[in-house]
């Protein structure tokens, strides 16, 4: 009573006379038939219990195959260790092309040395397993032993055919007997893996356990533990959904490896990550708040730069783009995000300042320095973005009409004109002429050759090789 065997049939046998042996065989056969074949989930896994060399054949390993079928020619990875290829297979000393899960197997491997393998190595497809040094578990206890398992103790975990010293941290707030286990070296684990916990000092088995999360990033809440406990014995897809729900945001490869190949049904895929709908909605709310706050702080700017938004939220740029794509409250304009319908506009005070600066600029092409216009930097950049001003260099701006007049006036310039000719033609000082010519060069209106310049093809000039930007 009180064990997993309490409901099993009891068969009386005699080793002396053989009485009851046939009854025992029938009972065992009935239990095996009732259990059915081992489930095939598509990914073979085999914990090595022996590794040895055979002359003329090479390295042979034995173990019990679980998870999926294994065939000659399959490529596997030794966890830990190199990738290998299956040269041949046997089950109960009979050659096989394919072995089904639940069977004993002997595999002749190519690509590894016998001395690189040992009991406790796991064979599985490359990239299909998480190597973890800390995982969340659900513990189960023999009768009256739960109180004997405390955080302070010397423990070993037996997982598959490997054993490793561990530290234990019970999670007393959880409704289930959960614990975080930290190993002295990484071990290969997947959601649902079973293990035994042994007290090293007493040399006693004190608990069993099931892996709930191979890579927890923080201490889970009782609700999250309950979510994982509910899904641990379900399909890989349901395990994947539970992992996404608990992590909120998790790498797609990690979900694949941790769940045993599951693809979550309810997650939102953004780049290389899965997000739960709740996490996506939270990030969308945070982005909306950040954009509105940016508008309040910088009302003359077109919006929050996407790179800054990603940095503020500590997320990838892909997530910012995905939120904007699905939002009716946000929109994008090139590299920035803004509230839908937002347009930068000058206030009454800024308009008065701009009118005064425009009067100073319009008086003559020999305009004052930009620093002398009393235009706040935010207003100046807003006017440049709007097209009212054209930035020539750090301390020189022109009205858009003035730039049009200069570019139109280039038509009357002779080929090979100098800075002095340009200066005199437009009535400029050298302080104005040099940066304006450099701006015209950069924008493709003119092309410099030594100390002379030609009008580019942008104005229909004669320089065929001048390509405007």
What is the terminal separation in angstroms? 87 Å
Sheet-strand content, in percent, reads: 25-35%
DSSP summary, beta strand count: 25
- The low-confidence parts are 461-469
Structural class: alpha+beta
Number of helices: 12
Q: Indicate the mean pLDDT.
A: 89
Give, in spatial order, the strands making up the sheet with the most strands. Answer: 1-2-8-5-4-9
Largest sheet: 6 strands, antiparallel, barrel
Radius of gyration: 37 Å
Helix content: 25-40%
Shape: elongated
3D architecture notes:
The chain is of the alpha+beta class and 469 residues long. It has 12 helices and 25 strands. Helix 6 packs across helix 7 (317-326). The N and C termini lie far apart (87 Å). 31% of the residues are buried. Residues 461-469 have low confidence and may be disordered.
Give me the secondary-structure topology.
Elements: H1 21-35, E1 45-54, E2 58-66, E3 70-71, E4 75-79, E5 83-91, E6 94-96, E7 98-99, E8 104-110, E9 122-124, E10 130-140, E11 155-159, E12 162-171, E13 178-189, E14 194-199, E15 204-213, H2 222-231, H3 236-247, E16 249-251, H4 252-259, E17 268-270, E18 273-275, H5 277-297, E19 304-305, H6 306-313, H7 317-326, E20 330-333, E21 336-339, H8 348-362, H9 377-386, E22 389-393, E23 396-399, H10 400-409, H11 419-426, H12 430-443, E24 446-449, E25 452-455
Antiparallel strand pairs: 1-2, 1-9, 2-8, 3-7, 4-5, 4-9, 5-6, 5-8, 10-13, 10-15, 11-12, 11-14, 12-13, 14-15, 16-18, 17-18, 19-21, 20-21, 22-23, 24-25
Helix pairs in contact: 2-3, 3-4, 6-7, 11-12
